[in-house]
User: What shape does this take?
Amino acid sequence: MIAKSLRDNRRALAWWSAGICAFLAVYMSVYGSVRENPETYSGIAMDKFPGPLKDLMGGFQDFQTGAGYLQSVVYQLFVPMLFIVCATLLANRIIAQPEESGTLELVVTLPVDRRRLVVERWAALVLSLLAVACVTLAVAWAVSVAVDMGVAFDRIAAAHTGVFLVALLFGTVALTVGAATGRKMLASAVVGVWVVTGYLVVTIGRSVDAIAWLKWLSPFHYYAEGRPLYDGLPVGDYLVLLAATAVLALTAVLAFDRRDVGV
Amino acid sequence: MTAVVQAEGLTKYYGRRRGLEDLTLDIQPGEIFGYLGPNGAGKTTTIRLLLDVIRPTRGLVRVLGGDPRDPAIRSRIGYLPGELALEGRERAGEYLRFLGRIRGGVAASRIDELAERFEADLSVQMRKLSKGNKQKIGLIQAFMHEPEFLILDEPTGGLDPLVQQEFLALLREVRKSGRTVLMSSHVLAEVESVSDRVGIVRDGRLVAVEDVAALREKAVRRIELHFDAPVPAADFQGLPGVRDLRVEGAGVRCTIDGRPDALVKAAARHTVVHLVSAEPDLEEIFLTYYSEEEGHRDRQESA
Assistant: This one.
């Protein structure tokens, strides 16, 4: 089952890896010119994103240092979002998409326990995302060395691990909604709403007291606030992400085991 | 011997919509059971309950002596879904081998043999298969592991006549080897040639289970006779089993309820140039076979 899911995913995985790598290469290679003209580029960045928009982009602190640039341009918004979209699309292939297209009906009549079916396909999702994460990490590291960013490998790896965990969490959210309802649009919508509100809460919402407590519900809080690029692996925060993922995956298994398929 | 299918009071509601109500049915080993009914009557609901795709609202279902929720029970079943969906870039042959592995191993030669019989091309990507070719792949995967119990939902949909013949031949082989088949259809003609018994389902209820021979005797047939000269209407009036009689010159049209014996003997007194006997369709069987029951129920309701 796992091998089959991985084989089915291979084309998508190749494209996503290639896409994210291309993004990393293009954006990170600009760093060379940023470092040479720090004032200009910081200024441009500040002008381009005034006030709240700047908050939204993570504040652009120390844009001209390697870690700052990497955080603002790569790990703040774009790469996590690309990963989350990739994870959600792959997760929808586990239950909701085959259920809507009708291919799941034959699969659930096979001599495979439904709980095992969900667990194995989820495991394939984990491995798929891990593959994309490893490939893109290697490229990120290579480019950072090439343009002499001066960020240690373990810091980049720590940030990348966070991206992987956040994407896996949202992928598992999609799986759980799909496993419980069999509806792809609903699963994607839940992920979308959670991503957007979660992200807003930890960026713009940080200064608004009334909603500041919501950050505890935002996966991004456990990802970016630990500042992995500066301080290394935030073990506690990442464990929270993992635990939440495990609870969601278990919910998916139980929900799918209980319900009618394809009605 | 334990029954292959045992259903008692099996009921399924989708929310408030009724899918199946109070189904009680036994299917014995070695039997080919035809499951008939118009679209939306509850055939697919029954089949999905037997395979644990959906769960009963109430009632009991046992398949091959166990709970279909048990994967070991499902490994002994072959299933062709009514609306088989196959998609993706994967080639049909690869998918069949995958299904074979999950079902505990199927020899490649067995898959090739079935593919040859159905003239299916296994090297085609599944998304490019036509409806008929998808159906062939569906039949191959249902038969390939030689299951004890075959559940086929509308198996002949989309098949051309030659492949249908091959399918019926395969069914006869299955019966000869003592295995059991449940096949659904909305066309009586499709199941009557191979079935031992037929169950008829309508509006979510099993309204009758009959031997095929008995059903055929009860079935209504539309008959048209043409003679070489005009015939007197009186010769055909009042014959047992003859209804809706219309005599127009040299032509006689009627429907026959049961045996056509009396009509044939009456016609034999004239020179018959042409005879048409239309296969009874299910609707007509419903109209006659169940009009009595319906009338009875109506009277009870109005009382």
Summary: The two ends of chain A are 24 Å apart (CA to CA). Residues 2-258 of chain A form one domain. Chain A touches chain B at residues 1, 4, 8, 11, 101-103, 105-106, 108-113, 259-263 (CB under 8 Å).
